[in-house]
Structures are given as structure tokens and as C-alpha cells.
Amino acid sequence: MDYLQSAEKAAREAGKYILSNLGRTKQISFKSKESNLVTEVDKKSEELIIESLLKDFPDFDILAEESGASSTKNSEYMWVIDPLDGTTNFAHGLPIFSVSIGLIKGNEVIAGVVYDPTRDHLFSAAKGKGAFLNGKKLSVSKTKEIKKSLLVTGFPYNVEENPDFCFERFVIMTKNSRAVRRLGSAALDFAYVAAGIFDGFWEVKLNPWDIAAGLLLVKEAGGKVTNFKGEESDIFNPQILASNGHIHDKMIELLALAEQIQLSV
């Protein structure tokens, strides 16, 4: 079995479990504050994924949202797992969430899967082989004007502290685009950029498991992923900007302008 097949199998298995528990979850706890939820479904989903992946590739390392890093094997390969991206949505019965599994070699993502179990949408990509949705090849949008662009973003859990000028960046993007959406699942945000639904996505603070699969999806669909300065980014850089490429420079300009405006106040 190859890497992508293994990730797809694990994602589908976890997605089936998650969907069977939608609207039935009982145990909700908090990682650090009341906006950062974790449920028993997150934890069980992660267990299912890790068990499946290690059965296929027992020597690979693991970095997962709930259990953290397991790097004692010192492998050059590491699975990066978000077992339920969109926990708050899930806990409230809102059917916008996903499973995200990426595989890195060194610091480079070489395979990635984002699975939306509510729609049975399986987004997948392997380095150099393109991005796909249920087997159909994906391509980013062709929109070239920011004013005609549909964008998406998310806010960090400490949003009330306005880290990295997240409010100012949201306002300026909203004023200069057709619209900005906030879905609550960064993995799906990336996937929808890859599918040409969204023209661009930015977020000020993400974790490696939020980024790994989605970053590769966008790149393999012909898009661009950088930090807010336009520099090459990897999964360990929390600041992410992903787009169809055409509006990338304009998004960088607007994100910088928001910071300048706030600093001048």
C-alpha cells in the first residue's frame, strides 16, 4: 500500500466514526480556554487513525493534535494528523468539519488527505502528481481581481487578544474583496482553495496539523502558499497565506496595510 492509499483509508475510517457520533457527543473538555474544545470523538478518531497508519507503516513517526509528537523512531517520515478539524462546529452539530492527514519527509509535505465525511468529499494530493476530489483533478480558480474574489479565514483561540492584527486584517480583506467567509475548519479552507471555490485563504496562527495536508493540496492544484511576506512557508510556520496565485501579491499588500494602519493609530 502506498502513502496516499494508507492516509485515505485511515481518513475514511475516522470520518465514518465521527459522522456516526454527530449530535451524540457527551464529553466536552477544554484544552486551555472555553473556546478551545476537545471531545471524546477527537480522541477516539485520532486513535483510529494512528492505529491504521502504523499498521501500514510501523516505522514512521507521528505528530497528532491530541497526543502530540511520537518521534522516538527518528524516521525521516512523519504523519501529521488532525483527527477532527472543526471540533467546535462538530460539538454544536454544525456539519462543517474534516479529518486531515499529511505525510512529511524532512520538512516537506509529500502526501495529504482532507476528508469531509458529511459530504463524502475526499481531497487528496501527492507531491508532483496533482490534487484530486474523489478522483477528479482539481485546479485553483482563475480569478485575477481581489474585488471579485471570495476569501476565507479563521481566528485563533485567543482572538480577544487580537494576535498579529487579526481583526484589522479581517476588516481590510472584507472591504477589498467580494466577501470573506469563516468556516471553522482550516483544512477545508485549504481544500476549497485547491478546488477553486475560494480564491484565497489566510490565517495568522495555525498548527502543523492544520496545515500539512491542505498546503500540498493548494500547491498541487496550481496555487501558491507563503507567509504574509510572500516567503516560502512550511507546516511549522503558523502564519499562512494560500491563494490561486493571481491575487497573492494583492493579498500580501492588504495584509501588510492592515498592520501599518494599526501601528499608526
Summarize the structure.
This protein is α+β, with helices and mostly antiparallel strands. It contains 7 helices and 15 strands.
Question: Which terms would index this structure?
Answer:
D-Maltodextrin-Binding Protein, domain 2, 15 strands, Fructose-1,6-Bisphosphatase, Chain A, domain 1, 7 helices
* Proportion of residues in β-strands: 25-35%
Query: Strands across the major sheet, in which order?
Result: 4-3-5-6-7-8-9-10
The name of the CATH topology of the largest domain is Fructose-1,6-Bisphosphatase, Chain A, domain 1
* Cα radius of gyration in angstroms: 18 Å
Mean pLDDT: 91
- Which structural class best describes the helix and strand composition? alpha+beta
Number of helices: 7
CATH architecture of the largest domain: 2-Layer Sandwich
Helix content: 25-40%
Which segments are poorly predicted (pLDDT under 50) over 5 or more consecutive residues? none
Could you give the order of the helices and strands?
HEEHEEEHEEEEEEHEHEHEEH
Give the total of domains: 2
Major sheet characteristics: 8 strands, mixed
Cα end-to-end separation: 57 Å
The CATH superfamily name of the largest domain is Fructose-1,6-Bisphosphatase, subunit A, domain 1
Say how many strands there are. 15
Shape descriptor: globular
